[in-house]
Amino acid sequence: MAIQTINLKVHTKIALGYFVLAALLGCVLRFFKVFDIPVTYKFIVHTHSHIALLGWVYLALTALLYKLYLSKAKVHKTYSRIFWFTQITLLGMLFSFPFQGYAAFSIIFSTLFLFASYWFAWFFFKHVPLEYSNVPSLKFAKAAIFYLLLSSIGPWVLGVVMKTLGATSIWYRLAIYFYLHFLYNGWMIMALITVLLYAFEKKHHILAKRSFNNIFIEFNLGIIFSFCLSTLFTQPSALYYVFGGLGAVLQLWAFYNLVVFLKVAKVNKGRMYSSLHQNILKIVAILWAVKMGLQLLSSLPYFANMAVVYLDFTIGYLHWTFLGVVTLSLFLFLDNFKLLSLNKKMLWLYVLGFLLTEALIFYKAIMSWQEGTLFPEYSVILAIASLVLLVAVLGILLSSNRLKIKH
């Protein structure tokens, strides 16, 4: 009897397709200030963020986790059902958010997505083969999924807050920040570390048990404590600043120890990746270090207040994490595990678009902070830089057709 197989390459292309749509919606938002576009700006923002985080990143990460730990478990049929159910929820959000924002249909499909993620979490924990039980990277994978589940508390609380206290309550923002913090810093970052460690484990580069446990504990405590940084807009007691700063320091220390391990592994047993992949990894390491440095800086009252008053600093930080650290890591890992054929020219065009948009967003934030004036063509140039990102992502998707491997 033939065993059903899944073409994860197709799933990856679908994820990239959502990224193209998210980039297109991003361009609509940028050109909104250049042309008269007949859309509701706020509704497009909701669509853009949901499709980017849940369409592109979530699908790409779950495809990677399935390939690494479950592709030999003979559970293809169940995974396929989860995948296509998730598509229904994503398409529902795509065709409801732009027209009504947060309303009946968009809330229904957003809620159904949460159930799809719960289904995947149950599926993963239940079906990981016993042979992986002693594989260190699996510990990070399980932690990543735990944070995915933990983050979902945010949307549930948000619904209650909107019905009782309203959108002006501090609990409204706290629910959103809770969701984003554990989604970005918990689910995404821990899942990416999982894939990185797995790749090294396959080449027999394994962290010593004590070192691994230290790094694992430092990352987890860092993620939990640094949530305090997301509460500083409420101007809480000094203790929150201390715990937030401690969380940022712990993450930086864990990151440093991880980098040391990777360098030692490279020296002892040679290069792990191709030159292209090594260059991407170096860029990601720099972006990640800057991200955590900004986190640490935001634990100081002056800079915490800046992030609240000048929203472009927060927007720049979120895009830095999503478009830089997370997306470039995904490009690297999807290419490394043969789920994507990465076009070098489009990759570097993407990096260029990312750097341009980030420079412009932070430039605007600094001008607001210093009460300066933006140069007249700012909105047009930012819109064009966003177009560069769209072209690059579209180019990566179209060029990925060259690789046809079934898993």
TrEMBL record:
Signal peptide: none annotated. Keywords: Membrane, Transmembrane, Transmembrane helix. The keyword Disulfide bond does not apply. The chain crosses the membrane at residues 12-31, 51-70, 82-99, 105-125, 146-172, 178-200, 212-233, 239-262, 283-303, 315-334, 346-366, 378-398. It comes from the Bacteria. The keyword Cytoplasm does not apply. This is Cytochrome C and Quinol oxidase polypeptide I. The lineage of its organism: Bacteria, Pseudomonadati, Bacteroidota, Flavobacteriia, Flavobacteriales.
